[in-house]
Amino acid sequence: MTDSYWVSPREANILITGRCNLTCRHCSVNSHGALRRDLPLSAWIEILDKLVSNKLIKLTVTGGEPLARPDFTDFIKEIAARPFRFSINTNATLITPSVIETVVKTSAHLNEFMISLDGPDQETVDAQRGRGVFGKLVTGVGKLRAAGLPFGFYCTVTSLNAHRLHQTAQLARALGGEWIKFNSFLLAGPGLNEAMIPSREQLEVSVAGLEAMKASHGSFIQGTVLDMRERACKFLRNEIPESSDRAYRCGGGTGRISVFPDGSVTPCDHLPEIILGNLASGESLQSILQGPAMKKFSTFLQRTRSSNPECSSCRYLPWCSGGCPVEGISAAAGTGKDRSSCLKLALENL
Fold first, then answer.
1. Alpha carbon distances (Å) from 107 to 103, 162, 234
2. Residue 157 phi, psi dihedral angles, 5° rounding
3. Which structural domain, as residue segments, surrounds residue 342?
């Protein structure tokens, strides 16, 4: 390993607020407790300029719920005044006319809205996100569609919605989404419940239904639950070569960073406990990325899978794609399990 392991990232998730109007049962970010204090916009302007000087080109505006920040529209104007492309990650329940007006005016810089949709109906969504959320979500999406703004959906697959994935994809298409990603629930936080992990039987039926739908709708349907199933099928067809014995391949340790509401820099917004430095305290991003905390994290990323007791004796180790650093770190801390990228589990779930 060399000190240049982390080449300057080009993307950042910026968590502009720790506030959120929902209390979702599957949220790994908030499972670590309340996010840090929100910086004023003036401090964020300095951070944005530091990101520009480090040649970052893509931002995902997130939180908390970013639209819960009172000066959200001013924030978007500041981002659009710089050479960024940006996306907005939202639950879509707080979309107002002023939000629509501002984003339309800055849409030359907008990639898309990324909206959380965890079921096809009120019963399923509200069970995971809270009472009344589904209706507000559908209303908010309707406003985006009427304004001609691009959007897609994320669905976190849990035991509460795994039996309704096909219907969720149908709703996403009916609402006008450009894509929907079905991603594995990360058991990576002290406040999360293992009962939220979908059963093997649930995944077997639901993912098969998604694959059938994907055959006719192509890239509209995406996500990690499909990626791992596809990898398992390729393995059975002898289409996967043996891979290098590297533990983690997520871009969260290489090509992007997260900046928390108080200016703290972490490798990923799911790893709030790994603070690399703070852009609001006078540090430059370059010094943070070359600092001791980053070197320690990159050492973890370079760890081989054979050093993990759960993986070292696995017969599928030479073909495994690695895993998620979030789950690996949480597993080591005793607050989670390293499971979402496990080839053995994917084969068992076929």
1. 6, 34, 40
2. -85, 115
3. 292-349
> Could you write out the DSSP letters of every residue in 270-322?
T-TT---EETTTT--HHHHHTSHHHHHHHHHHH--GGGSTTTTT-TTGGG---
Q: If you count them, how many residues does the chain have? A: 350
Residue 154: in which H helix or E strand, if any? Answer: strand 151-157
- Is 279 domain-assigned? yes
What's the predicted TM-score (pTM) here? 0.89
How many domains does the chain contain in total?
2
- In DSSP notation, 230-251 reads HHHHHHHTT--------S---G
Alpha helix segments (H runs only) across the chain:
41-53, 72-80, 97-105, 122-129, 133-147, 165-174, 200-217, 224-236, 285-289, 292-302, 325-333, 343-348
Place of tokens 């499909």: 226
Kindly state whether residues 231 and 277 are assigned to the same domain. Answer: yes
Angle 330-336-339 (CA atoms, 0-180°, nearest 5)? Answer: 100
Rounded to whole angstroms, the Cα distance separating 260 from 289 reads 16
Q: What is the pLDDT of residues 22-66, one digit of tens each?
A: 988 888 666 555 566 899 999 999 999 999 999 999 999 999 999
- 176 and 302 assigned to the same domain: no
User: pLDDT tens across 81-115, in order?
Assistant: 999 999 999 999 999 999 999 999 999 999 999 99
Same domain, 241 and 108: yes
The distance of Cα 342 from the centroid of its chain, to the nearest Å, equals 18
Domain boundary among 271, 291, 311: 291
